[in-house]
Amino acid sequence: MVLQTNFKDTSFYNIQKDGNFLNIYYGTDFMMRVNLKNIDEVKRSIILFKNIDAPTSWLARVFEISRPTIEAWFKIYLNKGMDALLNFRKGPKKITDEIQAYILAKFKELNFVRHYKDIIREKVKEHFGLNLHWRSIIVVLAKSGIDLSIKKNNKKLPEAKTEEVKGNEVVCENAGLFFLYPFLEKLEISSLFSNVRSIFQDTYYSVLEYIYGLFLLYASNMIMVEENIKMHEDKKMHIVLGNKGLPSLSSYRNYMFKIIKGLDIKNFEDKLAEQYYKDHRDCNEIYVDGHFLPYNGKYNTFKGYNPIRRFAQKGRTGYFLNNTNGRPYYYILSDGYKDFREYLAEIAENIKKITGRRSKKDLIMVFDRGGWGKQFLEEIISKITFICWRTGKVKMPKNIQWKKVKIKKKGNKYDDYKVEILEASEERIPVKSRKYAKRNIYIKRGEKISLAFSNDKERELAELVKILTKRWGVQENIFKALKQVGIDKISSYQNENYPEDWLLEENNVREVENPGRKIIEDQLAGLKSDIKNIQTKIGNLYTKSKKKKNRRILDLEKVIEKKSKKISQLKKEHSMIPEKVNITEIIKSKKITRLNIEKKKFLDLIKVLSYNVQQDIVDIVRPIYNNERDVNMFVRQIFNKNGIVILNKNEIKIIFERYTSKRKNEALNYLIDIVNKKNIKHPLLDAKMVFECK
How far apart are CA 14 and CA 10, in angstroms? Predict the structure, then answer.
């Protein structure tokens, strides 16, 4: 059996169906045999491929299972583990006559009290061990002839008896969510949303209940998009949130724009970044990178370049600022027409404000080749210290001297590191200014030499190489994790026309790169690469045939001729397309609208903060759990862990059962000790939280 740590192109895999069995080969090597009738075997195989980044669409075709089902399985696996996935079976639970009679008896006792469905669900679970959906209870009541429209006509419903919760032991399905509150405290959520409190004075839910609900759901990876909220309305979330329950999806949609309208999103974001830097004074490296966020809706919006699919597509780009540990703390959402360099210039201009008035001497900005450009770098060279990868051919200086640089790479255990040795050299370009330097840097890994550039005049070459080579792990891997909380989702399909005053202002200054040129440039690069590969094949065939032309060589030469003609044709088309186009002309001629940016930006900021809170907990248990491969999954399992909650006037006690694993128990007990020492009060119930594990 052959296993890979990274998924190759789908063309590497050969799939052969043999009756109810699927034989999968990697090239000519046998990889696995899957029984399609055995659902557990299919689930294990799909998770194996998903863990090495296999495309969902390819898995759907191979295993003949829908993409949403595969994504749902993978989410269960990430949050609860393989055992939970194997035990997961879709479909309604059977409700016996005895259970129906019990539901009716309980309903007559409660008589439309608030949250009566949740109370009945808990009682059914307690007596029969059956976890019903609230809609099943509605169906049972409706079939029994109970008029449920009475509830709709009542403006005020009787409250549930407080004895159901307070002063009693209550089983909570997601008791682990209580762990998030001690780590949310430092965000000062109450003061951040003080401006919008007045809007919610006469409403059932306060603004804090809406916001804390979002944080709990996103930080625990329970939802990716707003629509997923309805999956959790019937859960026992009201204990975690303070007895009122999770607001419904319709409530969130009604009040979301009121919250956003009362906030200054830009100011909100700046405050969060300043606050983050206050708590992380040692974060001097700022990693900046853009990630394309596709849009597949019907509205005609700007197109951007999708680097994964390698063509122009409707969508926007999100630019993330991460620290050296991969924590995102600032986020810029583009409208799709600005160049990456413009945002880099904007960041360089406002870096002091973003970092809470930090000295520019301490900071260094790190970015990819997309920011490289001699003219642009000359403009920002005196504003911020930076290092970036360069484009262009390698022109090595004479008498170059290589220095060995040791790069530490994280292993599978907390304090386990693998050392990779690179070679580096540099060429300093003379400059008149004392404020900055110009350094061409050469980094050698095996036979490959990569180019970089920096204006840093203080840091040693080895330190700069270590900073730059961390970029992939700090940026790309973190975006992959942010996608688990839905950072790449659209959030809102509302759109608007560009304002006339904006069009007038941009008309004088805004010309954008023509995306049509980029498409042709990619096609040309592909054709040139094909010709190069074919020429290599011809050379090998000449060697085998003792420099005599055979039919195969003649056929390959004809293919080269066709591709060469295509290249000539594309070059003509490329020369006729203008390099830049006026932005307002595009907007008016193509009737381009822009997607609502405020809601997307607000929810994305909540997601970024939620991810950081989740990682705060991961960092605490990491040295105790001592397994880097699934420490994130373990923390998500903690959030989903059931527990007994005892609510008293001044104290909330959350009691968890022990795990069967010694390592998990040690990590959980360590986390409990840390949060208990914080002496944190529940922000909505104003009662001290105490955690236990028995």
Answer: 9
* Identity of the residue numbered 474: V
**The CATH number fitting domain 266-485, selected from 2.102.10.10, 3.90.350.10, 1.10.760.10, 3.40.50.1220:** 3.90.350.10
Write out the H or E segment, with its range, that includes residue 503.
helix 500-509
Domain boundaries, the chain: 10-87, 97-160, 171-263+598-693, 266-485, 515-577
Are the C-beta atoms of 365 and 286 separated by less than 8 Å?
yes
Distances (CA, A) of 393 to 261, 353, 366, 452: 50, 37, 21, 12
Distance between CA 496 and CA 514 in Å, rounded?
Answer: 23
**Helices 134-143 and 116-128, axial angle in degrees (round to 10):** 100
Question: What is the DSSP track for 644-666?
Answer: EEEE-SSEEEEEEPPPSSHHHHH
pTM: predicted TM-score of the whole model, two decimal places: 0.69
Burial class for 266, CB neighbours closer than 10 Å (0-12, 13-18, 19+): exposed
Sign of the C-alpha dihedral, residues 383, 385, 389, 391?
positive
**43 with 90: CB under 8 angstroms?**
no
Pick from 678, 687, 694, 690: nearest CA to 184: 678
**Backbone torsion region of residue 591, taken as left when φ is above 0, otherwise alpha when ψ lies between -120 and 50, otherwise beta:** left
pLDDT tens, 256-301? 888 888 887 777 777 777 777 777 766 788 899 888 888 877 888 8
